[in-house]
Design goal:
It is built from seven helices and four strands, in the order H-H-H-H-E-E-E-H-H-E-H. By secondary structure, the protein is of the alpha+beta class. Strand 2 and strand 3 form a beta hairpin. The chain starts with a helix and ends in a 12-residue tail after the last helix.
Length: 178
C-alpha cells in the first residue's frame, strides 16, 4: 500500500471514529486520538522514490490534468483562436488569448483527449504541421502586441505520417535521409 492509499484509509478511519464518538454510547476517544496521530505522521512522511513504472503510470493516467484544465485554473478568461490560415485547424494545438488581472497573454498548448473519441479528435496530442504554423502565427501576433507567450507542452512528438511530410513537416538540419 502506498502512502497516498494509507492516508486515504486513515482519513476514512478518523471520520468513522468521529461518527462513533457522536453516538456517546461508546468511548472511542483513545482510538480517535491514535488514528489522528497516525494520520498526521503519514501526511508528514516523506513519499517514497517513484520507480520508472510509477512515473509512467502517472504520465499515462487518463485523469491527469490537460493543458485546458491548467488554463482554466490559472487564467481569468481564455478565448481560443483557430487555424493556421493555410490548411486547417489542428485540434492537437490549442492557441488563444488569456488574462490574469490586467495582464494579457498568448497561450499555445498541446492538448490530448481524455477518452478515445477526444484522442482521435485531437490526434492523440500529436501536432501536424498546421499546428506549428498556427503556433508561429500567434507568437508573431504576441510579439506585435507585446504580450508574453505561455506554452504548455505535453506530447509524444509530432505526427509522423506521410501527409505531415507533404505539408511541410520535415527534419531540420538533415540533408540526407538514411
Amino acid at each position: 500500500m502506498n502512502n497516498k492509499d494509507n492516508i486515504k484509509e486513515l482519513e476514512n478511519k478518523v471520520k468513522e471514529l468521529e461518527n462513533l464518538a457522536l453516538d456517546k454510547t461508546l468511548d472511542v476517544s483513545k482510538d480517535l486520538e491514535i488514528a489522528k496521530d497516525d494520520l498526521k505522521k503519514s501526511k508528514k512522511a516523506k513519499p517514497k522514490k517513484l520507480t520508472a513504472w510509477d512515473k509512467l503510470s502517472i504520465v499515462r493516467d487518463p485523469k491527469r490534468p490537460t493543458a485546458l484544465d491548467y488554463i482554466d485554473i490559472i487564467f481569468d478568461d481564455f478565448i481560443e483562436l483557430h487555424g493556421d490560415r493555410e490548411f486547417t485547424d489542428d485540434k492537437a494545438m490549442v492557441c488563444g488569448l488569456a488574462s490574469i488581472g490586467t495582464q494579457n497573454f498568448t497561450i499555445i498548448a498541446e492538448q490530448k483527449g481524455r477518452n478515445t473519441k477526444e484522442n482521435i479528435e485531437r490526434n492523440f496530442g500529436m501536432p501536424n504541421p498546421e499546428s506549428y504554423k498556427k503556433g508561429i502565427r500567434f507568437m508573431k501576433q504576441a510579439e506585435k502586441f507585446g504580450r508574453p507567450v505561455i506554452t504548455f507542452i505535453d506530447t509524444k512528438g509530432a505526427y509522423p505520417g506521410l501527409e505531415a511530410e507533404e505539408r511541410g513537416q520535415r527534419r531540420s538540419n538533415c540533408k540526407k535521409y538514411a
